[in-house]
């Protein structure tokens, strides 16, 4: 073989060519298919962005309606999946439940594994886009001990998610347009981020020609970790801990800088962004606006702002180019929308779903080879076996 270069964490290794997302970490630029994240967050709807990411172009009205109809037609989840859900303890982390149920969907939709034609691929894609929001809502309902809901065909994609998550029996659920818009924006901001940990996982799992649903389930597992999507939960837990500590941000700053202490300032730093994370900028502004619109005063937001200010003035963070990332302020918004803390990463997964699908589809259409990194062996050289009684 040739020379193997060692690059732990793939800091400088490209794994594929991609036409989906452009990211300039020095300048803080993010584009989906050539459209700026700022413009999409402001003007587009989540489902349009999903279509754009997956198929490469913004849909016209007719294409969008058909896409939405196809998704709605596929939004029923087999009754037996409820039995699997039932078997989990109520205390189960929603991300584990979501990953398991997504994987389990394959058993109930065996044809989803067949993606030999683009038409078959499309069917699997609309199936998962239809069923995933149901699973997202079910993980919440399970956790809360509430009856499970199904979607309504008369609602928009994001409205439907909210309705399934929050409507209670014998009670009319009135959708608040501020809440719908806020969630739509958050999902757009999370929809893709090129070859991050979970997306690379989806591509690698899918490169073995494992089915779409299980490849996505692998991505959900990768997203769960606190260094990746799990950071949004960790941020709020950190801010709550600071609040309990009487707002002592200095103490947490010192812990984050202490190399003997494994604690990191959650929601800070990014592998690629060495300037600011453009998503964090949009989310910070949105958090202010949404809390204001909903008439909520959350002391956690003030703590977050104070912490950000301190970090941005501290040479440790400045020297290492550590800025707030997408997860720093998103939790403040999720809280305002009434979403429990351990559901935050599930909401991230809902947003990232079209990105994972788009990247998986690109990988399959490009006929990429199986993902199989090399290594540099540093273990023992050949030695003779010694029977157990002689060891
Ligand atoms: N708090 C304190 N120090 C930090 C932090 C932080 N949040 N992030 C990085 N550093 C330090 C790190 O200790 C290292 O210092 P030194 O050079 O003295 O050893 C330097 O900055 C470079 O960090 P790194 O760990 O080599 O950088 P990385 O690219 O491997 O890690 C990261 C990127 C996002 C995992 C990391 O910044 C981190 O752990 N942040 C906190 C968790 C977080 O917010 N994750 C969300 C990421 S964005 C969205 C997403 O993926 O979901």
From TrEMBL:
Pathway listed: Carbohydrate metabolism; tricarboxylic acid cycle; isocitrate from oxaloacetate: step 1/2
GO cellular component, as recorded: cytoplasm
A Pfam family reported for this protein in Swiss-Prot or TrEMBL: Citrate_synt
Top-level lineage group: Bacteria
Gene3D superfamilies in alphabetical order: 2.20.28.60, Citrate Synthase, domain 1, Cytochrome P450-Terp, domain 2
Swiss-Prot/TrEMBL catalytic activity: oxaloacetate + acetyl-CoA + H2O = citrate + CoA + H(+)
Keywords: Acyltransferase, Transferase, Tricarboxylic acid cycle
SUPFAM superfamilies: Citrate synthase
TM annotation in the entry: none
GO biological process, one term: tricarboxylic acid cycle
Active site: 270, 327
GO molecular function: citrate synthase activity
Entries under InterPro entries matching the protein: Citrate_synth-like_lrg_a-sub, Citrate_synth-like_sm_a-sub, Citrate_synthase, Citrate_synthase_AS, Citrate_synthase_bac-typ, Citrate_synthase_sf, Citrate_synthase_typ-I
PANTHER family per UniProt: CITRATE SYNTHASE (PTHR42871:SF1)
Family: Belongs to the citrate synthase family.
The protein, known as: Citrate synthase
Organism: Aureibaculum marinum
Lineage: Bacteria, Pseudomonadati, Bacteroidota, Flavobacteriia, Flavobacteriales
